[in-house]
């Protein structure tokens, strides 16, 4: 079988491809190769700018043409590199040969051996991958999550005055407001997003074992640490890890993944609450022409978007858990276990992106069924007991909690009438009785 959306093994490259296609430029094999080419070329340019003698006559007017090698990088270019890799059996070496070929086409044969000068493969991988991750997070992940937060903020504002029966332990509890409950999720997501944004995108750049050995032996009088710091920070926009083995520590990448896990958990919490509110009839859902909820039951309109989101976010979290736990661990100066694992960083982001989009679609389908919220409040007058006993405490009434417990913890239904009848039996002033009778499930919603 040829690979396409029908024959792909992974659903993110099959069924859900259209939902995650914007991540392909960052995390596909093509994307990884392109970022490697970018790093190799920017490194060569940085070497020229560093002032080392053999590159003093390098024609700097060729910089733009060199950069076009990666800014105009095509699938055909990637295929050339993959063909070379069949011979080299080394992916980064194939990239090096490709860049050298492009330099020959630009008449830069004299400087070929300064491509990949003094580097090991991980100097390329451990800059290319964090750069692609940084770009994907900034260009795709954060905007997609921000759309969910924006929708939640809109609902929090629209529904800020809608009273709603709260449920603690699944039981009726002191009333709240729908908008406030939506804002709980918005606030949680904003806090975690701000923490995620603060995590640096770290890169390793220091030669075969992190000591810049080859650079130093070739040019011992050059400040290679400063060079590496400036190259990684100024030209690539990353944060260089100062003391490393052959590979990056991945500690900050693990921190990024942990932040993503927390965001996923908050959204799963939201998905489950929305699912439950729909089952309670607090929300109806906008109907889509031709859509079928059940192959057997024509009446069904299922909360499929929240279910789809929950499932995909769960998969994303499971993969992130492994990445965060495994990547920071490497035997001695390096082993290869990070290499194959690192190729999967796009998988959890893809499932998370599907989750974000599904949650957003589910939110956009919601139709508030205000009569159902009001009916639930009216059927649960027992929840004003807290209010009444608290006012009585204020007035010094003896054992008010016990008095209200006797009223409400019975099998008989508590109604407005029974509450008001109870108030009339209290030995308090008429003004206090009127104050207590003014309390209802609909207005006992706090601040």
Word description of this protein:
The structure is a single chain. The protein is mostly helical and 447 residues long. It has three domains: 17-117, Orthogonal Bundle (Fumarase C, Chain B, domain 1); 126-205 and 242-369, Fumarase/aspartase (Central domain) (Fumarase C, Chain A, domain 2, Up-down Bundle); 380-437, Fumarase/aspartase (C-terminal domain) (Ribonucleotide Reductase Protein R1, domain 1, Orthogonal Bundle). Helices cover 60% and strands 5% of the residues. The chain has 19 helices and six strands. The protein is elongated. Residues 294-300 have low confidence and may be disordered.
Give a topology summary.
Elements: H1 17-20, H2 24-27, H3 29-50, H4 63-71, H5 75-88, H6 91-105, H7 121-158, E1 163-168, E2 171-177, H8 178-198, E3 202-203, H9 213-218, H10 224-235, E4 239-240, H11 251-279, E5 283-285, H12 304-326, H13 337-342, H14 346-365, E6 366-368, H15 370-378, H16 385-394, H17 400-408, H18 416-425, H19 430-437
Parallel strand pairs: 3-4
Antiparallel strand pairs: 1-2, 5-6
The CATH superfamily label of the largest domain reads Fumarase/aspartase (Central domain)
What is the residue-averaged pLDDT? 94
Order of adjacent strands in the largest pleated sheet: 1-2
**Individual helix count:** 19
- The backbone outline, from C-alpha atoms, is elongated
What fold name goes in the CATH topology slot of the largest domain? Fumarase C, Chain A, domain 2
Helix-and-strand structural type: mainly alpha
Oligomeric form of this entry?
Answer: single chain
CATH class wording of the largest domain: Mainly Alpha
- Counted beta strands: 6
List segments where confidence is low: pLDDT < 50 over at least 5 consecutive residues. 294-300
Strand content: 5-15%
What series of H and E elements makes up the topology?
Answer: HHHHHHHEEHEHHEHEHHHEHHHHH
Residues in helices, as a percent range: 55-70%
Q: Cα-atom Rg, whole angstroms?
A: 31 Å
Per CATH, the architecture of the largest domain is: Up-down Bundle
**End-to-end C-alpha gap:** 62 Å
Please tell me the total number of domains. 3
Instruction: Specify the biggest β-sheet.
Output: 2 strands, antiparallel
């Amino acid at each position: 079988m040829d690979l396409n959306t029908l024959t792909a093994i992974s659903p993110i490259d099959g069924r859900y491809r259209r939902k995650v296609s914007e991540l392909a430029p960052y995390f596909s094999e093509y994307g990884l190769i392109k970022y490697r080419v970018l790093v190799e070329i920017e490194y060569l340019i940085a070497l020229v700018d560093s002032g080392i003698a053999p590159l003093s006559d390098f024609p700097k007017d060729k910089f733009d043409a060199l950069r076009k090698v990666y800014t105009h990088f095509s699938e055909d270019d990637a295929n050339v590199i993959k063909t070379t890799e069949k011979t080299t059996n080394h992916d980064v070496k194939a990239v090096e040969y490709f860049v050298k070929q492009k330099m020959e086409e630009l008449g830069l044969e004299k400087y070929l051996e300064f491509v990949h000068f003094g580097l090991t493969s991980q100097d390329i991988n451990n800059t290319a991958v964090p750069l692609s991750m940084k770009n994907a997070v900034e260009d795709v992940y954060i905007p997609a999550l921000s759309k969910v937060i924006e929708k939640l903020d809109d609902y929090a504002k629209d529904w800020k005055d809608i009273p709603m029966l709260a449920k603690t332990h699944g039981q009726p509890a002191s009333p709240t407001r729908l908008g406030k409950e939506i804002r709980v999720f918005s606030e949680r997501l904003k806090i975690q997003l701000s923490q995620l944004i603060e995590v640096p995108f770290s890169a390793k750049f220091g030669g075969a074992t992190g000591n810049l050995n080859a650079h130093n032996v070739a040019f011992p009088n050059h400040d290679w640490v400063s060079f590496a710091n400036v190259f990684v920070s100024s030209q690539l926009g990353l944060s260089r890890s100062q003391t490393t083995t052959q590979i990056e520590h991945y500690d900050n990448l693990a921190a990024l993944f942990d932040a993503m896990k927390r965001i996923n958990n908050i959204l799963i919490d939201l998905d489950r609450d929305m699912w439950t509110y729909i089952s309670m009839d607090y929300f109806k859902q906008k109907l889509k022409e031709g859509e079928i909820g059940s192959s057997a039951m024509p009446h069904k309109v299922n909360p499929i978007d929240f279910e789809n989101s929950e499932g995909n976010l769960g998969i994303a979290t499971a993969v992130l858990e492994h990445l965060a736990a495994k990547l920071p661990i490497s035997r001695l100066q390096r082993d290869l276990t990070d290499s194959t694992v690192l190729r999967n960083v796009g998988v959890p982001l893809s499932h998370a992106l599907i989750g974000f989009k599904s949650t957003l679609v589910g939110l956009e389908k919601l139709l508030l069924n205000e009569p159902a919220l009001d009916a639930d409040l009216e059927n649960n007058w027992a929840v004003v007991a807290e209010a009444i006993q608290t006012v009585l405490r204020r007035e010094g009434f003896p054992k008010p909690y016990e008095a209200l417990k006797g009223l409400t913890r019975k099998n008989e239904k508590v109604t407005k009438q029974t509450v008001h009848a109870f108030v009339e039996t209290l030995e308090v002033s008429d003004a206090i009785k009127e104050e207590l009778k003014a309390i209802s499930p609909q207005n006992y919603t706090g601040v």
